[in-house]
Amino acid sequence: MPLQRTALVTGASSGIGRAVARLLLARGYRVFGTSRDPGAVSDPVPGVEYLALDLDDDDSITACAKAAGEIDVLVNNAGESQSGPIEELPRAALERLFQVNVIGAVRLTQLVLPGMRARRRGKVVMVGSMLASFPLAFRSSYVASKAALKGFANAARRELAPYGVGVTTVEPGSINTGISERRTQYIGVDSPYGEEYRTMLTALNANEAKGIPAGDVAATVLKAIEAPRPKPLYAVGSNAPLVFALRRVLPRTAVERMVYRKHGL
Asked: Domains of the chain (ranges plus CATH)?
């Protein structure tokens, strides 16, 4: 009888993380899901074992990895969405964003890799964003954090492949998960960028309201996990096959204009 596989999914209290946890449970995994406050999860998935994780706290990251023990799959999904003109982004906000979206995820990955390497099996999935491939004005900090996460994954693939550990990135496009209400924003009341920022934000929120459900992203994450040799990048939503094809054949400036027009700029 095959051993039960174990997965650790960060940010599993809602949205993509919750949907991934449900799918993995259905596939027979033992699933640990994380939340800043497991006791406050309003709609816990039956069967998911919730662990506390604050990616802004190294002690919390270490404790979470220790509590999960030996795992076969890590899905780095938790993160913050942030917007604002680059000129007006506070340093403290930037540092928190990169700690949560990048450094915390990398640190958790570092802690589970020795076990995966010793057992010569494992999958690490970084949940990024298509904005890392198609940058958008006024989302510079978020774009940069997701691009950094993808950079870590791409570079680490070769390091870990000889030990049977696969690393991949899943880039969702617009997703209808209610993230618009949770996005942190930094822009002055009298900002010179105010009009264009509000135009972008209105379009962004409308695109997300019409976006794909979290379950579609979760299905793509599962595809990456169960692929014998996962691809470096999986993209889903926002007409991903078409726009990535256009990105390969069109000049970069044309692709940038396409992204801006989609957001009213």
From this structure: 6-262 (3.40.50.720)
